[in-house]
């Protein structure tokens, strides 16, 4: 008279005609770390070497600040609008480093078989290190380029070497790498970022 008191049978989530069996579902690729470590170290080392051309280019492109000698003991007097070049020096360095970061982000993305967070982080760290070294080397080379060999005469206008007065500008390089790489990864849209050639 009473129905069976056994457990109710619920339809299986994989038994329906429109469902996909769990065994055949595509597995998400895991992050490859071990195989990407050596390429990441190589990327980091190569990018660090870019600090030398970056520093040299900035030391030649950044505008110097002109001042006038107002006293016989060499006291310098500021000229109108010349102090703005202190910001120009930072801007030139920032744009150079930002451009380098964008190019590096694209080039690292083209390493198809090494796409992923390991090489990406190496690229970010490499550009940051290159920017930090260039910030130290650039003013040194600029001082050598604008060296004053003889004492200036009273009333003479001299050029002071460009300088970098803030470390925040170093962040523009990693920002460029992150923007370029993130946009390309978003445009790609694959779980494995297209590492597999098939």
Automatic annotation (TrEMBL):
UniProt keyword list: Membrane, Transmembrane, Transmembrane helix
Annotated TM spans: 37-58, 90-111, 118-137, 167-187
Protein's UniProt keywords contain Transmembrane: yes
Top-level lineage group: Bacteria
Any Pfam family hit: DUF2567
InterPro entries attached to this UniProt entry: DUF2567
Name of the protein in question: DUF2567 domain-containing protein
Species in which this protein is naturally found: Amycolatopsis plumensis
């Amino acid at each position: 008279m009473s129905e069976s008191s056994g457990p109710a049978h619920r339809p299986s989530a994989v038994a329906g005609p429109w469902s996909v069996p769990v065994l055949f579902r595509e597995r998400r690729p895991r992050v490859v770390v071990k195989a990407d470590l050596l390429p990441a170290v190589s990327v980091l080392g190569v990018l660090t070497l870019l600090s030398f051309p970056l520093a040299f280019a900035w030391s030649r492109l950044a505008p110097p600040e002109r001042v006038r000698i107002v006293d016989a003991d060499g006291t310098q007097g500021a000229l109108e609008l010349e102090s703005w070049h202190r910001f120009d020096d930072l801007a030139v360095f920032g744009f150079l480093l930002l451009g380098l970061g964008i190019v590096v982000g694209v080039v690292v993305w083209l390493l198809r078989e090494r796409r992923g967070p390991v090489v990406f982080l190496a690229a970010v760290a490499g550009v940051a290190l290159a920017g930090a070294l260039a910030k130290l080397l650039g003013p040194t080379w600029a001082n050598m380029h604008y060296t004053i060999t003889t004492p200036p005469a009273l009333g003479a206008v001299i050029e002071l070497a460009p300088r970098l007065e803030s470390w925040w500008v170093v962040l523009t390089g990693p920002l460029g790498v992150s923007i370029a790489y993130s946009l390309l990864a978003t445009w790609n849209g694959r779980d494995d970022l297209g590492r597999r050639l098939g």
